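Input chain follows. Return structure tokens only.
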Amino acid sequence: MVGRKYDFLGRQFSYLKAAFLAMEQSVNIIDLARKCGGGYVSEGVQFFFLEHCLNSGIHEGFEPDFIYARNIVKKIIIAVESNHGTVVDGLYEQLAHYMSSFQDNTSHNGRSRVVKHITFLTDDDGLENFSIPLQCSENMLEGDTGCVIWPSSLFLSEFILTYPNIFSNKCCFEIGSGVGLVGVVLNKVKASEVIVSDGDLSTLENMKLNLDLNKLQSERTAVSQRLNETVSVKCKHVPWETISEKELEVHQPDIILGADVIYNPSCVPHLIRLLSIFLTRRSSNDDTNKNEECRFSPPVAFIATVIRNVETFNYFLKHAAEAHLTIIDITETNKPHSFLPYMVSTYNRANVRLYKLLSHI
């Protein structure tokens, strides 16, 4: 019984740190802090927060976002004082430091990008916990949606980590890669080649920066620090509307992936064209240099999406049928493990559907 109690508390403290580094909303941070303290934000929890969240950059090579950290410290102090608790001196000192060093000038005004750390808690599945730093948009300004971490990319990442054998030693091509999260996870499960792509040049530049943050240099050979193995990771500009079939046929991926790519009816025909080219590209002539296993393994696509507009999704199904693509809903049959249990305010797994696509030509 005692062991179970400490296991629970240990997990809650892990959740608190991971949620802070992912810049979860303050209400989630306070809720986790209270769970760690048995119903209130205890002094022990405050010391943990100071050492392992606010000061984690000293030990682990990164620092929390200044403005976000300041706001969370204020919320924690308010939560403690409202419960007539004792605020440790370190928190007051930290807030005083933030307030005195914060200047209302151009260095803090108008910022649009922050670095969030998405931590996958995989201890129970025989893997080491790992964190992925990603520069992303702080808001949802029009034109910056490609730099937001969308729920479907989190779901697809959990799916990849749950079923690594599907992707290991496979050439994987992601369309509409956004911040590049899925590509980093594909590298983690030892895909033989990873190609991430986007049609927006600004998003593509941000994605390249994120690959560099994760030591996966775009367009060059990347070295996996943990396994010391070379993995090819590439960024490609893929404007769905204009890219030619010849340009796409240069790539012959085993697996195509997409997260939240079914969102605009005007883009659906172009999306289906891309999927059709990739899923039907193999013939006996194309496979002369492939081994026997690959020759008879047709390419497959995995698309994760939140169905925000039923009409748009039905439009996608209609075009897929006309292109002779089979779509199978595998959300329930291939449920991913929950590697992001601390993400409550930004990630509702129940809203995401996962589809497997094959060509039946």
